[in-house]
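pls ignore typos typing on phone
coenzyme A + seq
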Amino acid sequence: MIEITIRNVQPEDFERVAEIETICFPAAEAATRESLKARIAAFPECFFIAEKEGVIIGFVNGCITNSPVIYDELFSSTQHHIPNGQNLAVFGLDVIPEYRRKGIAAQLMNHLILAAKNTGRKSVILTCKDQLVHYYESLGYVNNGLSKSTHGGSQWFDMTLTF
Ligand SMILES: CC(C)(COP(=O)(O)OP(=O)(O)OC[C@H]1O[C@@H](n2cnc3c(N)ncnc32)[C@H](O)[C@@H]1OP(=O)(O)O)[C@@H](O)C(=O)NCCC(=O)NCCS
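k done
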């Protein structure tokens, strides 16, 4: 397993985080700079950075909700965050291309899952495309079928990991 440091996001990470988001997602799916800045300010406890020798190479971010599934407004407004809610909703998992397929996303996801467990959440929820369903299943998520989300004009599946 490649050695990395995982830590909570800090305001000064913003530019690098925004850069990585544009590398990892097409424009229609990427979080906007404004959104990322607002998330970092509003719920850094749900935002984890992967660092290799002091350089940010990936991150995972989300918020807390009482909804059992992701809905599109969650992505665009930090107002939907419910600090003492039941479920951690994952917005995005990003690893820069040079570091992919080394288990870094899995380390980030396992860190987030543990944080959710340790703060008394009931589940972690996310949406993903067809080709990543098997990947999230390998991390313990259950596929609940097609999501109502039309984020970025794509088709998504609802995935849930219940503690
Ligand atoms: C998806 C992503 C986060 C995976 O990061 P990673 O650090 O390479 O992931 P891991 O090393 O933990 O796991 C790799 C596994 O993920 C799966 N996987 C990753 N990308 C895949 C793809 N495009 N199609 C199918 N499976 C894929 C495979 O099972 C792969 O295992 P393998 O190398 O044995 O084939 C990274 O490719 C990425 O940032 N992609 C762009 C953004 C994105 O799609 N994020 C996820 C949706 S929120």
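The pocket of coenzyme A is lined by residues 24-25, 92-95, 100-106, 128, 131-132, 135 (CB under 6 Å). The chain is about 30% helix and 30% strand. more later
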